[in-house]
Automatic annotation (TrEMBL):
PANTHER family attached to this UniProt entry: ATRIAL NATRIURETIC PEPTIDE RECEPTOR 2 (PTHR11920:SF494), GUANYLYL CYCLASE (PTHR11920)
Transmembrane segments: 84-107
GO cellular component, one term: plasma membrane
GO biological process, one term: receptor guanylyl cyclase signaling pathway
GO molecular function, one term: guanylate cyclase activity
Superkingdom to which the source organism belongs: Eukaryota
Keywords: Lyase, Membrane, Nucleotide-binding, Transmembrane, Transmembrane helix
SUPFAM superfamilies attached to this UniProt entry: Periplasmic binding protein-like I
InterPro entries: Cyclic_nucleotide_synthase, Peripla_BP_I
Record-given protein name: ANF_receptor domain-containing protein
Organism listed in the record: Brugia pahangi (Filarial nematode worm)
């Protein structure tokens, strides 16, 4: 049975070497994107020890992958770290950004305080004193008692403006 080729129940030719071992034949299948099915692209014959390409391979991206990764299989080809100037440039950029943001924050705060100080003519609500308002109401009651009620005197009493006591800014 050695060194013979016979057709047995297994479809195709079966080849056996001088030791009685069968030669293995392999087909390489590839998914054809147009047909959406696997097709034979290469065939290896164990008896003749040759690889025959039947059709073209369908590679992702149109080309075969690289033989080895960019950094090598054990990462020996990758650089250990960045050069010193990269760290220096990054640190100085971050430092300048922090300084600029701090400067902008304090500058805007200073401008706000300056604007508020320039508004010394405005009176805070807490500085208003309502004692004079109470005195005006008492006077208007006396005037009404003396002169009687009239629309002219009521309109005249309403035309007075409010005043306040004691403000350091006034």
């Amino acid at each position: 049975l050695s060194n013979h080729s016979r057709c047995i129940i297994i479809p195709g030719n079966v080849s056996i070497d001088e030791n009685g071992d069968r030669y293995s034949d392999y087909s390489l299948l590839d998914l054809d994107p147009q047909q959406d099915k696997f097709v034979e692209v290469a065939y290896y014959s164990g008896a003749s020890n040759e690889l025959k390409q039947v059709t073209e391979f369908h590679w992702v991206g149109g080309k075969p992958p690289k033989d080895s990764p960019i950094c090598g299989w054990d990462h020996s080809k990758c650089p250990e770290g960045y050069p010193f100037y990269v760290y220096l440039l990054s640190g100085s950029t971050i430092f300048i950004l922090i300084l600029m943001s701090g400067f902008i924050y304090f500058w805007r705060r200073y401008r706000l305080e300056a604007e508020l100080a320039a508004m010394s003519w405005k009176i805070r609500w807490e500085d208003l004193d309502g004692d004079e308002l109470k005195k005006d109401k008492k006077k208007s009651r006396r005037v009404r008692r003396l002169h009687g009620f009239s629309f002219e005197s009521e309109a005249l009493l309403r035309s007075y403006s409010r005043t306040s006591n004691g403000s350091e800014n006034v």
